[in-house]
Design a protein that fits this description.
about 230 residues, mainly alpha, SRF-like, rod-shaped
């Protein structure tokens, strides 16, 4: 049986001159084996080595620059694709968040529009009933006192209703800001402000608050001249 040659133990060469000689011999050997591999397998290859003194040596097939450019381009393309995937994912999340925001704002707007429509309807009905109020100039003292009490009571109810609506609207706005990350549209603000009941003097137009038709009929009958 043929004996295998014993492998030499690889140890670091400490002598600078010996190290440079060993580097030169082995560098040529590495480049020769690389050339053989390129010839046999038709592969593209690039090798860059630095001598102990810091000098660079390279081998490339077809050239070092061509192989490096191809390698860099491949890495750049991979990184670009990764960035595009991340951006695409971020864009989809942003679109989903915006759609959720718009859906919530549309729901808020629809609710407020319905409330406004209902309040206007009640206001119109109440104005019709207010036309049936008796002539103040023909009322006696007792009737005037009753009417004054009724108006004071109505004013308090209107004030309370206004405060309730303002508090509810403020709470709704705060919840919307927290839920949607502070997104708040100008259209929503305009609609919100339209729903608010505006107080006037004793003859306010928005007497619709907190008074149903039955209450109004009973209240008016208290001071209608007999």
């Amino acid at each position: 049986m043929a004996r295998r040659p014993k492998q030499k133990n690889m140890t670091l060469i400490t002598d600078a001159r010996t190290k440079q000689v060993a580097f030169s011999k082995r560098r040529h050997s590495i480049f020769k084996k690389a050339l053989d591999l390129c010839t046999l397998c038709a592969v593209e290859m690039a090798i860059i080595v630095f001598s102990p003194g810091g000098k660079a040596y390279s081998f490339g097939n077809p050239s070092t620059e061509a192989v490096l450019n191809r390698f860099i381009a491949a890495g750049f393309s991979a990184n670009l694709m990764m960035i595009r995937r991340r951006n695409s994912s971020s864009d989809e999340e942003e679109r989903a968040r915006q759609e959720a925001t718009m859906a919530e704002l549309n729901r808020q707007y629809s609710d407020l529009s319905a409330q406004l429509k209902e309040e206007k309807k009640r206001e119109k009905e109440l104005k019709k009933k207010m036309k049936n109020l008796p002539d103040i100039g023909k009322m006696n003292r007792d009737e005037l006192m009753k009417m004054k009490e009724w108006l004071e009571d109505l004013r308090v109810k209107v004030q309370n209703r206004e405060d309730e609506m303002l508090a509810a609207q403020t709470t709704m706005d705060d919840d919307l800001r927290l839920t949607l990350g502070g997104v708040y549209s100008a259209g929503d603000q305009a609609c919100s402000s339209s729903v608010k009941t505006h107080r006037g003097e004793a003859g306010d137009e928005d007497f619709s608050a907190n008074m149903d038709d039955g209450d109004l009929s009973l209240s008016l009958s208290a001071f209608v001249p007999k």
